[in-house]
Amino acid sequence: MKILSLNVTEFGKLHDLEIKLSDGMNIIEGDNESGKSTLLLFVMYMLYGLPKSSRKGAPDAYDKQRSLSWENKRAEGSMTLLHGGRRLRIERENTRRSSSSEARVFDLDTGERLELSGEVGEELLGIGRESFESCLWCGQARSGVIKGDDLSKTLSNLSLTADESVDGEAALAALKNAKKQYKYERGNGGIIFELDESISRLRAEKATVDAELSESYSSRERQRELEEELLSAEKRFAELRSLKEAQETVALLGGFRRLDEDEKKLRDAEAEMASLKAENGYTEKEPDGNTLARLRMLISAREEKNEEYQSICLERPKPPRVDGEAVEVAERISERYDLSEALDAVDKRVLSVKKTRAAAISLFALGALSAAGAVFFLPALALTAVFAVLGAVLLIRGNKQKKSLASDLSQIGADISDYRGRIDYCFAQKRVLAAEKEAAEKLYAERKERAGRELARVSLQVAELVGSYGRADESEEALILRIERFIKKREDVRRRIMLVSSFVERDRKQLEGQDRKKLEDSLPKNIGYKANMTRERLDTEYAEAAAALESARSSLTDIRIKLSAYRATEDSSLELKRRIDELLAERKEAVFRYEVLSRAYDATDAAYKNMRRNFAPKIRERASENLKKLSGGRYSQLFMSEDFGISIDVLGSERELGSFSAGATDNAYLALRLALVENIFDEGMPVFMDETLSNLDDERASLALSLLDEYVTAGGQCLLLTCHQREADLAAAKGISLQRIKM
User: Fold this and answer.
1) Residue 425 CB: number of other CB atoms within 10 A?
2) String of DSSP letters for 120-145
3) How many CA atoms lie within 13 A of 522 on its CB side?
4) What is the distance between the alpha carbons of residues 40 and 27, in angstroms, rounded to a whole number?
């Protein structure tokens, strides 16, 4: 199970607060008294409601007054969670006058409300309020209960009952003592034995009294029979006498009476139909099943189109695959020249180098000719020297120009022999990049526009349907629920109208041509409406009824005189029977309680022994792994004796937990609690840490955060509440993915 969001309307000091949670690590930071613990209490309120009153010894989180808002004395909000692959929303509302409220749970994917037989937490998690707090709620105040000798009893209780406050051994002793109060295991004694003694004594007394009343019982039974016969005879005689006076008129007026009743029912049903339509605003056009199905389909389609549109909005066009280095070269060149200007500039420099080197070669050639002429003309030697110097100067200058040009061309990956191809290639890559970017942006814009049009189209259709059948301040979910109720009730009223209409039509045909007023005037007063009967049969039954009435009166008088003598003895017998019945009821209740206590004792004892054999080793192994991680490898083994005595391996020897520091004890408790959660629940659950790491130093807190990160990575969820920034900073330093929320 994962909690997706918490929406607090009013709760304690919190109001109008919405917190969206990630499905992994969530660190909620806030100053003292900022409402962090109240926020965790709100989670428990969503799952289990408010307790009727604070429990003795319970943490103040259970205080009802702390849960109600300070201003309006209300508790109201909702929680969205992911459970079993479904998104569910829990809504709950309490006032000062109400101790509990029914949670409303909706499936957000189907819009249907879930019908639960118990509290939400018990239905979804399979555990009660106290087990939820014991397993999943780890606060600073609760981690201190595991110290020294108490740790054995606490772990035993958590393993057996998932509640560290319930003493399993004490519960077994209490069950055994409770059984003894009802029945001793050896010898006579106990409530059941005493009740058996009293019942036997009273039964003996009643047997003596009943022996005296044995004759009166048959007379009493005969009296009841005669009284019933007298009532029946009197009623029958009165009916027959009335029917004898007006036989046919009664039948016709009975038909008119039925017609009146059916016509009234028809008017009431038609008025109810009109009121139903007016109440929902459907006087001209009414929704039907197709309307409801289309509205749900369009809302679902709108959600899909919106998700598609949002997904496209989050996308960005992928960069084209081009030579990035060449594009950068083209960009640098484009800062000063276009393509033709760049090529011309390089061509000029190449030409300048060539001219300079050619001039140097020419001067060297002239110098050689002058040197050859110096054989015949001695002054030509001076001219040779001049040509040589000038040629050397030009050659050096040409080499410098060539070297500078080669250096500049090397920066763009070219040399003097292929610079034109390189520059053309760089500018071509730049053009390809621009064209592909433009095409990608255009395709992205078209997809986004198309998705937006589809979303707008479906949204418009939803708005048209909602506008046709909804109200101004009514949500879509409320409209769907109201249409469902309207259709169901309308069909019920329609069926009723059709049925009553058929009765009215039938009665009108049967009474056609009859004058009701004349029939009523002709009928004697105070006569009943009965079925038709032939005159001969009526006369016969009238005579028989008169004789039966006289016989019943005479027989009843005789039996009453006879029974008057037995009245006192009968009262004594009734009193004894009442006392025996009370004792039998007490004995039945006592036997039931004894059997329940026996079954509870046997089941608890068997579970306790089985837990010690099977459950404890699994917890110990997992807790040892957790403790090793929490201590950075310093402690690698956590030992538990058969009686759950706790010790930790230190350099090959066992040391009791009571000899360790508070931080080490807290680490052991955290290791045990996570091991218990992983063994109790089949799927990842949210764990709540309220200032749990406040007593740990930075190193231990960092290791604890790493262990919690493993838990959420394996599918769990964590809400860690703290008044410091330390936990978030330590988690960030270790690269733990988390959501940081400020209160």
Assistant:
1) 18
2) HHHHHHS--HHHHHHHHEEEHHHHTT
3) 12
4) 13
Other CB atoms within 10 Å distance of the CB of residue 412? 20
Q: What distance in Å separates the CA atoms of residue 163 and residue 165, rounded to the nearest whole number?
A: 5
- Provide the 10 A C-beta neighbour count for residue 281: 13
Burial class (CB in 10 A: 0-12, 13-18, 19+), 496: middle
Confidence at 80, pLDDT banded by 50, 70, 90: very high
Residue 627 neighbours by CB under 8 Å, 6+ apart: 635, 636, 638, 648, 667, 668, 671
Please name the helix (run of DSSP H) or strand (run of DSSP E) that holds residue 44, with its range, or none.
helix 36-48
More confident residue, 624 or 318: 624
- Look at residues 306, 300, 156 and name the one whose alpha carbon lies nearest to residue 615: 156
Encode pLDDT of 585-622 as tens digits: 888 888 888 788 788 777 777 766 666 565 667 778 88
More confident site: 427 or 156:
427
Residues 651/158, Cβ–Cβ less than 8 Å: no
Residue 15 burial (CB count, 10 A): 17
For residue 373, what pLDDT band results from cuts at 50, 70 and 90? low
Burial of 363 (0-12, 13-18, 19+ CB in 10 A): buried
Cβ–Cβ < 8 Å for 136, 163: no
The amino acid at residue 689 is M
SS3 78: strand
Q: What's the pLDDT tens digit per position in 495-553? A: 999 999 999 999 889 888 888 888 777 766 655 444 455 566 767 877 888 888 888 88
Q: Is the dihedral of CA 515, 516, 517, 520 positive or negative?
A: positive
Quickly list H helices, 512-534.
516-522
- For residue 643, the model assigns a pLDDT of 53
Tell me, what's the pLDDT at 535? 62
Q: Which amino acid is at 39?
A: L
| The dihedral sign for the CA sequence 299, 300, 301, 306 | positive
User: Of 701, 644, 699, 716, nearest to 670 (Cα)?
Assistant: 701
Of 169, 158, 167, which is closest to residue 134 (Cα–Cα)? 158
Nearest residue to 91 (alpha-carbon basis) of 73, 101, 105, 81: 105
For residue 692, how far is the Cα from the chain centroid? 25
Cα 630 off chain centre by: 32
Q: Where does residue 354 rank: exposed (0-12), middle (13-18), buried (19+ CB within 10 A)?
A: middle
Q: E strand or H helix at 107, and its extent? A: strand 104-107
Residues 6+ apart with CB under 8 A from 734: 702, 705, 706, 709
Instruction: Specify the residue for token string 């089949």.
Output: 682
Average pLDDT over residues 193-217: 78
* Whole-number Å distance between alpha carbons of 324 and 229: 114
More confident site: 564 or 275: 275
SS3 187: coil
State which of 219-233, 443-457, 526-540, 569-583 shows the largest mean pLDDT: 443-457
Q: Quick one: which H or E segment has residue 638?
A: strand 638-640
Please report, for residues 1, 586, 587, 588, the alpha-carbon distance to residue 582 in angstroms, rounded to integers and kept in the order given: 51, 6, 9, 10
Whole-structure pTM over 0.90, yes or no? no
Instruction: Tell me whether residue 32 is exposed, middle or buried, using C-beta atoms within 10 angstroms of its C-beta: 0 to 12, 13 to 18, 19 or more.
Output: exposed
* Residue recorded with tokens 């048959």: 218
Please state the rounded mean pLDDT for residues 326-336.
Answer: 73
Question: Residue 48: which of 36, 66, 62, 59 has the closest Cα?
Answer: 62
CA distance 165 to 336: 82
Helices and strands, number each (H, E), in the chain: 22, 14
Place of tokens 């020297």: 385
